[in-house]
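Example record used in the benchmark description.
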Amino acid sequence: MMPEASGDEEDDLVARARSARSRAYAPYSHFYVGAAIRAAGDVFVGANVENASYGLGICAERVAAATAVASGSLAFDAVAVTSSAVDPTPPCGACRQFLYEFNPEMLVVSEGADGERRRWRLSELLVDGFGPADLRRPRIGEEEER
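Model output (structure tokens):
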């Protein structure tokens, strides 16, 4: 199912992601990514930040999400991602899981360097994702709540 485009709001979200991308720190991969998350009408941006110890880098989507959370916003409804790749690039697996925590049905918009856009619901990108409800299910040795 293709999510509907949200017109001017989507254009603004993508523009903010593009602006954040210009501040990415990617001296090793040269893969520059910007993200913008809309949460309850506010927009939070992030850029990927690499590190010489490669595993310590962080993706733009998680920077934006952490900034939103630190600001007290947890109700994410959309994320826009732009990268230096020609084709639209969806969030990586780790970011999909990270974002799933906040809204499995959020709109994900990705724009490639040539301006082409793709849209998904996060639940389409992370099928049967692991979320808060999974932690509330009975476990072996526990009685179901009645």
